[in-house]
Amino acid sequence: MTFQRPGADFAPATPCIDEVGGLACALADASPTEIVDAALHAVGPGRLCLVSSFGTESAVLLAYAAEVDRSIPVVFLDTGWLFEETLAYRDTLTAQLGLTDVRSLQPDAARVAALDGERDLWFSDPDTCCRIRKVEPLARALGGFDGWLNGRKRYQGGLRASIPVVERDGVRLKFNPLANLDRAAVEAAHKAFALPDHPLVAKGFSSVGCMPCTSRASEGEDSRAGRWRGKAKTECGIHTLLNTVGN
């Protein structure tokens, strides 16, 4: 697929003074496929994975990665609270894109039983709920990799508004191949790849995570407004807490 860079300049001021900064600067205007390819070369075969939630905005990154190498391991965190539609979407995209190594990971059962035996931790302490169901399992999974790809975009705002294309994530490199794209470019790529929508998009969900902490976003709201609605929380922790676990 031909990549067209958005007209607006989203690139942050990334210092080019070290290896990571230099790589970030070199790839600042690169296409998603170029970034994925550079990531593979930077960390080496078998040392790079893609982390995907198979949510409403996940398909485009998976499609770009499949253009480069369909065997890149895809790590999927099955938290035990996911919508059935998300699990079905995982299977649909895996088949359509020909992904050959999708790894569905579950949280540690004993840890969940000890801290969330009543299955209400999402309400009383959502940060700990995310930590045991997402952050800790991902930290274990990343132990075998030197770099990972994720689908954050700057237009999503909040802590994501100034992410570089490449950054240091503890002992690993973290690549954000879609950071440069605006919403229109992501939607154009979704159409060009002929990707199916997540089944819950038709039901009014613009961003989908775990069932208890996901609601519909109203017209005019930010796309992630339906995540942890009413709580002072905007991230599950894999992009903010991972360095404190297992690295």
From TrEMBL:
Keywords: Cytoplasm, Iron, Iron-sulfur, Metal-binding, Oxidoreductase. Catalyzes the formation of sulfite from adenosine 5'-phosphosulfate (APS) using thioredoxin as an electron donor. One of its GO terms (molecular function) is 4 iron, 4 sulfur cluster binding. It comes from Ancylobacter dichloromethanicus. This is Adenosine 5'-phosphosulfate reductase. It is found in: Cytoplasm. Belongs to the PAPS reductase family. CysH subfamily. The keyword tRNA processing does not apply. It comes from the Bacteria. Its EC number is 1.8.4.10. NCBIfam families: PRK02090.1. Pfam families: PAPS_reduct (PF01507).
